[in-house]
TrEMBL record, chains A, B:
Residues 15-476 form the Aldehyde dehydrogenase domain. Residues 426-453 form a coiled coil. Keywords: Coiled coil, Oxidoreductase. InterPro entries: Ald_DH/histidinol_DH, Ald_DH_C, Ald_DH_N, Aldehyde_DH_dom, Aldehyde_DH_Superfamily, ALDH_KGSADH. GO terms for molecular function: oxidoreductase activity, acting on the aldehyde or oxo group of donors, NAD or NADP as acceptor. This is Aldehyde dehydrogenase (NADP(+)).
Amino acid sequence: MIKEKQIIGYQFSDEGSETFFSYNPATSLNNEYAFSKAASAEVDKAVEKAAAAFQQYYKKSGEEKAVFLETIAAEIINAGDTLITVCSSETGLPQARIEGERGRTVNQLKMFAALLREGSWVDARIETAIPDRIPLPKPDIRYMHIAIGTVVVFGASNFPLAFSVAGGDTASALAAGCPVIVKAHSAHPATSAIVGKAIQTAARKTNMPDGVFSLLYGDGTTTGIQLVKHPHVKAVGFTGSYRAGKALYDAAVSRPEPIPVYAEMGSSNPVFILPNAMKEKGAAIAAAYSGSVTMGVGQFCTNPGILFYHANEDDSFKNNLKTEFEKTNAGVMLTPLMFKSYKEAVKQHLQVNGVEQLAVGAITTNNNGNNIATPVLFSTNSETFKNSPSLSEEIFGPASITVTTAGKNEMLEIATKLSGHLTATIHGTEDELDDYKELINILEQKVGRLVINGFPTGVEVCSAMVHGGPFPSTTDSKSTSVGTAAIYRFTRPVCYQNMPDSLLPLELKNKNTLMIWRLINGERTNKDLN
Amino acid sequence: MIKEKQIIGYQFSDEGSETFFSYNPATSLNNEYAFSKAASAEVDKAVEKAAAAFQQYYKKSGEEKAVFLETIAAEIINAGDTLITVCSSETGLPQARIEGERGRTVNQLKMFAALLREGSWVDARIETAIPDRIPLPKPDIRYMHIAIGTVVVFGASNFPLAFSVAGGDTASALAAGCPVIVKAHSAHPATSAIVGKAIQTAARKTNMPDGVFSLLYGDGTTTGIQLVKHPHVKAVGFTGSYRAGKALYDAAVSRPEPIPVYAEMGSSNPVFILPNAMKEKGAAIAAAYSGSVTMGVGQFCTNPGILFYHANEDDSFKNNLKTEFEKTNAGVMLTPLMFKSYKEAVKQHLQVNGVEQLAVGAITTNNNGNNIATPVLFSTNSETFKNSPSLSEEIFGPASITVTTAGKNEMLEIATKLSGHLTATIHGTEDELDDYKELINILEQKVGRLVINGFPTGVEVCSAMVHGGPFPSTTDSKSTSVGTAAIYRFTRPVCYQNMPDSLLPLELKNKNTLMIWRLINGERTNKDLN
C-alpha cells in the first residue's frame, strides 16, 4: 500500500482519520494507493496559504506565469507512463484515450502560456486626461483585468487529466493569477496525486510562492463545501453532475459574501436532422451519430442524447440507425455509482409509455463484466417526448433517444421549449438550413455552441470555443470552461484614476513595452501612448 | 390630478387598484401626478411582450440599435423643461444638477450608439478549419457575444435620469440587444413617466418591436420581486441600497433557473492621506474632501465616507477639515425615508464611544426645513474604528468620519481588513506613493476604481471606467455599471461550428463588411478573412 498525502503548498500533510483507496472499475478491486480525507484544519491551512500566496502571485508577469504553466506541462510529461497506467487503472479508460487526454492537458497549459506571453487578454483600456474640459476636467482612467483571488477547482470524473488537477479550470485560474486549490475527484485520486506533485514541482522550480497550489482529498459534501464556504475563497470551477454543481452553487450564493461558481453540469446536446440532409446522407449520419453517442462509453459532457427528425414513411434512416447502433461497443464506466445510475436511467426511460428500445450495442465480456454499460438507443414520437419531461434529461452514459416530429412547426415548437444545453446540432443542406433559419435562431439562444453538419462530441481547445451554455447546462451562461476566454472567469476589471505612470502596471504604462493591443481613447492600437 | 399609466410596450395600461402620488421632498406635499401600482397581470404582460420582442430585437444590427438609442436621446431632449422641473420637484435636486444629469444621460446613450456603430465590442473570434489535421480535423469555430434576453432595470433614487429609466443600465441592455422592463423608482415616478414615454416614442419612430421597452410602477417587494422571479427574465440591473439589492440577488439565485443580478449597492469609498501630501497640500485636500463628501447632499454612490491619516501632533489638517467642512451646506434629501435613515445613522455614530463630532455644515432654512440634511463630520482613532464595525458602513447622506492611524503598518492593517468598495483614494507625493506601494496593492484588491490624488465623487463615463467592486459594493465584482464595458452584463458568448458563411452573423462572415476588429486564428485584425 502506498499512502498519498494532502499537498498543501510545499508541504505534505496527513492529518485525516478517514481512509479510502483508489479503485479499479474494470476489476472492482482497490488499487494500491490509499488516501485520507482532508481534516478540517488541513482545508483551512490550504486556503490560508493560498490567500497569502495570492499577494505575490497575482503580481507575477505574464512571462513568469507562462513559464510556470509550461513547467507544469513538462512535469506532467516527466511523470511518464506511470501516469497513463495509474489513470487507466482508476478510470477504466483505454491507455490510448488517456495519452490523447494528456496531450490535450499539456496543450491547454501551453495555450494559456501563449495567451499570457501575447498579453492582450488583460483588455487594457486607456482614456487620457483632458484637464481643460468644460464644465469638468476629464481625469486619466486606465482599465485592465486582474486576478480575483483564490480559486477552488473540482476535478471532473470523465476527464481525469484535461478537466482535473491540471486541467482547464486550473490552467485558466493560474493563468489569471489566482492560486488554486483542487479537491481531487475520488474516482481518480492516484492520478490526481501524480499530477498534483507535478504542479508542486513546477511551482518550486519556477519560484512560485508557497500555497499557489494545493491538492486535497475528500468528499464534496464536507471538504468541498468547507472550501466553497471559506471566506478567502473567491471563485469555484466545477465540471460534473447537476446535483453536485447546483449544491456548490447554492452554498456559494448563500455565503455572507457570495462568490461565482462556474459549474459545467452537462446536457443532452440535441441533434436535429432536416429532411434533405437525411435523404442525402442518412446512412453516414446514422453511423456518425451512433459513434458520437457511445464515444468514451458516452461519458463526455457533449455526447448527443436526443435526435430529432421528421417522421416519414420511409424507414431507412431508422433502420440505418438501428444497424449502426448495434455495431457500437459496451465499455467500462468510470465508477460503479455511475454504472448503477446509468442502468436505472435506462430502466426509467423504458418505463415511459411510448418509448421503445430501438437498438442495443454489442456486449463485450472481456473483463468479467465489471461496470460494463451497454449502449442503448431509444425511440419515441414527439407527443410522448413533450409529455415526458424526464426524456429531456441527460443520461450519463452511452444512451440516446430518437424523437420523430410531425414537421417543421413542431420541430420549432420543441426547440423553443428546450432548456439550456452545452451544444445543439443541425444537419441540413445549405438550402434547407436557410429555410430553417428560425431553428438556428432558437437554438443559438439555448446553447453555447451550435454545430452544423457535424457532431458535438470533441471540444476544440482554441480562442473561439464556448464550452458552456444557459442553465441548467452551467450555472453561468456568460462563461466558457474551454478555450482562452475561460480565463475571464477568474478575473475582474479594475481602473486607476490619475495614477502616476511609474506606479501603473506594465500593461497600462504610456510605453507599451509588452506591445499588447490596447484601447486608447477608443482606438485599438499596439503602439505606445505619446 | 394627472393619472399616469403603466407603459407596456406600445400600450398604456391602468389595471392596478393601489394608487400613490409623486411627492415633493422639499415641500412635503404631493405633486399632481398619480400612479397605480402595477397589477400582477400587467407585470406578466410586460414580460411576455419583452420575451416576444427579444426574438426580433436581438437580431437588429448595430446601426439599427444605435439609431434607436440616439432617438431616445433626442426624445429626452424633446421633453424640454418639463422634464427638468418635474424631476426637480420630485427629488429636491437643483435644476442645474438635473440639467447636467440629462446631459450625461443623453451622452451615455450616444456612447453606446457609437460603440454599436464601431461594432468590435462583440469580441468576434474566428478559428478556421484544418481538415487534414492529425489525428483529428480541426473544425471552423466562430465566437461572438449575443444578447442574454429580457433585462429588468431598477431605477436609482439618486440619479433620476442617468441611472433610472433611460440610464446606464437601460442604455447598455438595449445596446446589447435586450428588451428592458424598468421598475420605476417610487421617489421619481413622474420623471420616469416622461422618460418612459420618450423611449416608447423612440421605439415607434425606429420601428422597434412592441415590447422592447416597458415601464412599471410599484413596490420593489411585490412588482420588483415578481419581475425578478419571472422565468422569462434573464438578468437584472439595480442601483440602490444594500438591503434592496441583496434581496433581489437572493430572489434571483433561488429561482429554478438562477439569473445574474448586477446590483450596485454603494460603499463608503475610503480615502487615505499620506503624510507628505498632507504637509504639502493639507488645506486643499481638506477643502476638496469636504466638497466631495457633501456634493449632491452626499447622495452619490461615490461620496467618500471615511478618511484615514496618520495621527500627529500638528492639528492643522484637522483644523482645516473642521473649517472647510463648516462651510458646506445642508440640503434637501431625496426622500423622507432617506432623511430619517440619515438622521438615525448620524445618531448611531455619535453613540459609539470614542467618536466625536468634528464639524457640522451650515444649516440652510430656505425651504421650511423639509427633509434637510445637515452635513456631519465625525472623528475617531484607529482603535475605536477597528472595534466598531458599524463605523465602516456607508451613511447615505453628507456624513463622513476621519480616522487617525498610528503609522504605515496600521494603515496597511486597516486597509487589509476593508470589505469591497466602489472606490478607494490615496493622496500622496510621487515618492511617498512609491513607499506605499503595498497600500496600492491592497486597495486594488478591494475596489473597482483606485483614485490617486483626486476624489472619487464624479464617475467619468468612458471606455475605461469601472463603476463596481467586490461585494458588498456590488453583487458581481466582475462587472461595471458605467462605461462601455457595462454592455457585457447583458451578453453571453456563443460559438458556431462549421456554419456556412451565408448563415453566419455579419460579424463573423469571411468578408468583414463592418470592418470590426476580430481575432482570427489568434491574430487581431480588421481585415477580411480570405
